[in-house]
From TrEMBL:
One of its GO terms (cellular component) is plasma membrane. Residues 18-405 form the Major facilitator superfamily (MFS) profile domain. It comes from Limosilactobacillus secaliphilus. Keywords: Cell membrane, Membrane, Transmembrane, Transmembrane helix, Transport. Its main location: membrane. The keyword Transmembrane applies. Pfam families: MFS_1. This is Multidrug transporter.
Length: 406
């Protein structure tokens, strides 16, 4: 917050209250997600007698369904956000998520879980809309810091969530975290409604510039599409691990000990690394530019997946995932910062919704890739394929920057 003190006279009235409220909303959203999802495969395992392959596939579907529906409807919500504002979109996401997550805790079959996850995805998007709202309220020269700060909120929640979820699940069972998350998301809905202010002038549907015209206003369209692809691949690299991390830990621990707690630690370590480095990376981004930060981050992330592929200890895996978290602090925020700098503000809602669709697509791709590869081969193979995908992403960004410089 102090980093923006010299910009106070340029900030809209109520900016700090809005920022704090949305930051907390993103924190709770991230915490609720990570408090429930790392253990959903173990929850599913309690609802039936499944083979290893069936359990991996059902776990992948439970992860993927939210993002399949999210990818389909995000452009509609983005268009509505440009006409009605992002605050309304945040309220819509928080309210529906409160309902669907709570009902998921009452599930009696795997298909009920999958159905609720699909419905949740159709109305989700709190973090993306909160980020777009703050992007529109913040001076461009501070965009890198603000995007990193907003990303830190979700990441901080992802850090706390697995530890809390693992502890609660180990004592009370896998349903309790869903009930708690549903209640917290309802509080986020109320906080967003009453405590945030958006200086937004509604645009009539007939006066909205079509996307073709917006595209022509962007100086380097190829870079924007490269950021969409980056969002997809980076998100896939995260989601390829999430569905199988608790099952991988269970395998490494030979099904003995407090698996839920250790899995929670392994799931949380990237969040800790991300939290520790996000602010510094945000400042670096504002000084040297987000493109350089993104390219260096992709190279380091690729290298870190090599030891993760070879390790057979959950604590060693947690260490390497911690280092990955330090690096990941520069990936998604960098891509989003590039979007805020190169896209007209009147199209933020639509561009961020397209980016959210690619992010959702990455979640689907990653979840199915992780569950499919682990089901047909091994858990270690998931890490190898994920690292290779990030290396390919590096060359996509490099090609785009080379052409831009030319």
């Amino acid at each position: 917050m102090n980093d923006l003190a010299d910009d106070n006279e340029q900030l809209p009235k109520g900016w700090h209250q809005t920022f704090i409220t949305l930051w907390l909303g993103c924190f709770i959203t991230g915490m609720g997600y990570s408090m429930t999802m790392p253990f959903i495969s173990l929850f599913i395992n309690e609802l039936g007698d499944f083979t290893r392959f069936e359990l991996n596939i059902y776990s992948g579907l439970a992860f993927a369904m939210t993002f399949i529906s999210q990818a389909i409807v995000s452009p509609y919500w983005g268009s509505l956000a440009d006409r009605k504002g992002r605050k309304l979109m945040c309220m819509r996401a928080a309210g529906v998520m409160a309902f669907t997550i709570f009902i998921t805790g009452l599930s009696t079959s795997v298909w009920m879980i999958i159905g609720m996850r699909f419905l949740q995805g159709a109305f989700s998007g709190y973090i993306n809309n909160a980020t777009a709202l703050m992007a529109g309220e913040t001076p461009h020269r501070r965009s890198g810091w603000v995007m990193s700060a907003m990303m830190t909120a979700g990441v901080s929640g992802n850090l706390v969530g697995p530890l809390l979820g693992g502890a609660l699940s180990g004592v009370f069972g896998y349903r309790i975290p869903f009930f708690i998350t549903g209640g917290l998301m309802f509080l986020v809905f109320l906080g967003t409604w009453f405590l945030t202010k958006e200086h937004f002038e509604p645009i009539e549907k007939t006066k909205m510039k079509p996307m073709k015209e917006i595209i022509h206003m962007i100086p380097n369209v190829k870079l924007i599409f490269a950021m969409f692809i980056t969002t997809l691949i980076v998100q896939a690299s995260v989601m390829s691990i999430d569905p199988i991390v608790s099952l991988y830990v269970r395998e490494m621990m030979h099904n003995r000990g407090n698996i839920a707690f250790v899995a929670g630690v392994v799931a949380a370590t990237p969040g800790l690394g991300n939290l520790l480095s996000a602010s510094k990376v945000g400042h670096i981004m504002d000084h040297i530019g987000p493109e350089k930060v993104l390219m260096v981050g992709l190279v380091i992330a690729t290298l870190l997946f090599v030891p993760m592929t070879l390790t057979r200890s959950p604590w060693s895996l947690a260490f390497w995932r911690f280092l990955l978290g330090l690096t990941n602090a520069g990936l998604m925020p960098a891509a989003q910062t590039i979007l805020t700098l190169d896209v007209p503000q009147e199209a933020f809602g639509r561009i961020f919704s397209y980016n959210q669709s690619f992010q959702a697509g990455g979640s689907v791709l990653g979840a199915l890739m992780g569950s499919g590869i682990s089901g047909l081969s091994s858990y270690a193979a998931v890490f190898a394929v994920t690292g290779a995908s990030l290396f390919i992403n590096f060359f996509i960004v490099l090609a785009t920057r080379t052409k831009k410089a030319a």
